[in-house]
Design a protein that fits this description.
- This protein is mainly alpha-helical and about 210 residues long.
- The chain has a single domain (about 20-200), classed as Hypothetical protein, domain 2 (Endonuclease III, domain 1, Orthogonal Bundle).
- It has helices at about 15-25, 35-45, 50-65, 70-75, 80-85, 95-115, 120-125, 145-155, 165-175, 185-195, 195-200, and strands at about 130, 180.
- The longest helix has 19 residues, at about 95-115.
- The relative contact order is 0.17.
Length: about 210
């Protein structure tokens, strides 16, 4: 990594240390782990209508409140457990979003029972390998694409909620399905280099859309 004084970053992370650490260490890294992907999808849904930094600051509280985002545990949450979550000041206490997290866990479990691997399903929308963009300005970066539209449709068919095209595209950016670091950001080349053949081979071909 270059020296701190030499680093050129995407402008959206600003000067906040937590935001910068997220940009430098996570955003855009190709992610293939099922449970980690599920966590990001839930958190992106929780962000709807809010700034991502708001969710980022609450992420550890979310992990504690939602059993580290273990889908099988979350799928069994009772009305009493959801009511308890709505009293938790560490998370975003929005009933629709809490209900959605549980519903999405149930949809995840249903996919698994049907023989669908969550990671392979999601990565299928980009053909199993990150899409490598070369944006020069933040204004060029889209808020949704044909791939995120397709992902949104298929997730909704499987019972997921809070998975609109814009949420799905933010999810794809965060988990490295697309490399949307600006070309002059030092992380652009790093994320490109992370897309190894061994990793991309884990995802199946694009599902029927």
């Amino acid at each position: 990594m270059p020296q701190e004084t030499e680093l050129k970053r995407c402008p959206w992370c600003g000067d906040d240390p937590l935001y910068r650490a997220y940009h430098d260490q996570e955003w855009g890294n190709p992610l293939y782990d099922n449970q980690q992907l599920f966590e990001f999808l839930i958190l992106e849904g929780a962000q709807a209508g809010l700034a991502w930094i708001t969710v980022l600051r609450k992420r550890e509280a979310y992990r504690r409140a939602f059993d580290q985002f273990a889908p099988h545990r979350m799928a069994r949450y009772t009305p009493a457990r959801k009511a308890k979550l709505l009293r938790n000041p560490g998370i975003i206490r929005n009933r629709l979003k809490v209900d959605s997290a549980v519903r999405n866990a149930q949809a995840y479990v249903a996919m698994e029972k049907a023989g669908e691997d969550f990671s392979a399903f999601l990565w299928g929308f980009v053909g199993g390998s990150p899409l490598r963009n070369r944006w020069r300005t933040f204004a060029e970066v889209p808020v949704s694409t044909s791939e995120s539209d397709a992902m949104s449709r298929e997730l909704k068919k499987r019972g997921f909620n809070f998975v609109g095209p814009t949420i799905c595209y933010a999810f794809m950016q965060a988990t490295g399905m697309v490399n949307d670091h600006l070309v002059d950001c030092y992380r652009h080349s790093e994320c490109d280099a992370m897309a190894t053949p061994a990793e991309t081979g884990r995802a199946s071909k694009s599902p029927q859309r």
